[in-house]
């Protein structure tokens, strides 16, 4: 079982490859894959890795807070893409923002966060975190396959998005139904 640093570093390389694919093809399918991969990746970091970073690494709270702020900016751009549609003319500037933000985030994590975790968290704890991160990734991948970046939204936020899109009968829908209706629109 890889530790979380190995797993997340592998994710970084995979997303960078998707960015290159976007640069050469710019198709809606690759945009959706990028958004889904980043949604899963950020959720794994926030649910499993960052709590350990904050509690077990000197200066980890500040690193976590900074990283989550960067995540929030990328998540906003991903939701804007979801609202506009993966083939919208609005996608390119949003993708550029995502690419730039993720590139900076990856540099900081690989230069500062990951080495600090490796030096200050025991090998056993890192192994445990790796198992937890892998399990979270599998669970979230299944959720994101259905919901995409909408997985992070509350029912109220989904309702507002459905309202913006003019989806009928939205007040009668549960969270999963709202997600399905929004993604189908």
Structure description:
This protein is mainly α. The chain folds into two domains: 4-147, Up-down Bundle (Four Helix Bundle (Hemerythrin (Met), subunit A)), CATH 1.20.120; 153-185, no CATH class. The protein is 82% helix and 0% strand. It is built from seven helices and no strands. It has helices spanning 4-25, 28-56, 60-84, 91-120, 123-147, 155-164, 175-184. The longest helix is centred in the middle third of the chain and has 30 residues, at 91-120. The protein is globular and about 55 Å long.
List the helices and strands and how they pair.
Elements: H1 4-25, H2 28-56, H3 60-84, H4 91-120, H5 123-147, H6 155-164, H7 175-184
- Helix count, per DSSP? 7
Give the helix/strand class.
mainly alpha
Strand content: under 5%
Could you spell the SSE succession in H and E letters?
HHHHHHH
Low-confidence stretches: none
Overall domain count: 2
Query: How many beta strands in the DSSP annotation?
Result: 0
Question: Could you give a short account of the major beta sheet?
Answer: none
The outline comes out as globular
Q: Remind me, CATH topology of the largest domain?
A: Four Helix Bundle (Hemerythrin (Met), subunit A)
Report the radius of gyration as a whole number of Å: 17 Å
Distance between the ends = 40 Å
The share of residues in helices is: over 70%
| CATH class (first level) name of the largest domain | Mainly Alpha
Mean of residue pLDDT values: 92
CATH architecture of the largest domain: Up-down Bundle
């Amino acid at each position: 079982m890889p530790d979380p640093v190995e797993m997340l570093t592998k994710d970084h390389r995979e997303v960078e490859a998707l960015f290159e694919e976007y640069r050469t093809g710019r198709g809606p399918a690759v945009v959706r894959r990028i958004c889904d991969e980043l949604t899963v990746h950020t959720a794994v970091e926030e649910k499993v890795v960052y709590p350990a970073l904050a509690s077990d690494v000197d200066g980890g709270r500040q690193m976590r807070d900074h990283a989550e702020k960067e995540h929030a900016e990328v998540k906003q751009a991903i939701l804007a893409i979801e609202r506009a549609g993966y083939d919208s003319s609005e996608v390119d500037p949003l993708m550029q923002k995502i690419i730039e933000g993720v590139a900076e985030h990856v540099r900081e994590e690989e230069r500062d966060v990951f080495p600090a975790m490796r030096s200050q968290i025991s090998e056993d704890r890192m192994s445990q975190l790796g198992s937890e991160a892998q399990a979270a990734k599998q669970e979230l991948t299944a959720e994101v396959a259905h919901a995409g970046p909408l997985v992070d939204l509350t029912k109220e936020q989904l309702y507002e998005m459905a309202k913006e899109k003019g989806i009928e009968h939205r007040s009668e829908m549960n969270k999963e139904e709202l997600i399905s209706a929004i993604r189908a629109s």
